[in-house]
């Protein structure tokens, strides 16, 4: 038998595509999630509604990171040819539908992250100190008397040397 590490196969350029068949009901959620995260394309096949064959949902990630989703309803004929009944495309769709129920990470916390209506209203009314109104911005940006000048009065303890201005720094 001949064994070549997977990283070496990709480095040599012999393999450009790897296709993996994963039965999600046979693996743990974390394993399936990791494979989905690593994949550039995921095809999920499920039975169709009302006996119309099957539905294939394809999610592709482009090199720029944009997600493209396609959904096709198809059936397999007796001669094993495929008939496509309908095709829907969702370009730029960023939400990936999974058959697994999403777990709420805030479900078992000892503190509350949600705001009540009164708390939300109070938050919206709060004026933040670093957010300026238009009037305050224009007042701060208008040049006033003495603006733009630096006034410095030399002190008797100033150590100024013409030859080496950085001589007093201890580095």
From TrEMBL:
UniProt record, GO biological process: tRNA wobble uridine modification
Ranges annotated as biased composition (Acidic residues): 155-171
GO molecular function (one): tRNA binding
InterPro entries, alphabetized: Elp5 (IPR019519)
Keyword annotations: Cytoplasm, Nucleus, tRNA processing
Record localization: Cytoplasm; Nucleus
Taxonomy of the source species: Eukaryota, Metazoa, Chordata, Craniata, Vertebrata
Region (Disordered): 137-171
Gene transcribed to yield this protein: ELP5
Record's GO cellular component terms: cytosol; elongator holoenzyme complex; nucleus
Family: Belongs to the ELP5 family.
Identification of the protein by name: Elongator complex protein 5
Principal location: cytoplasm
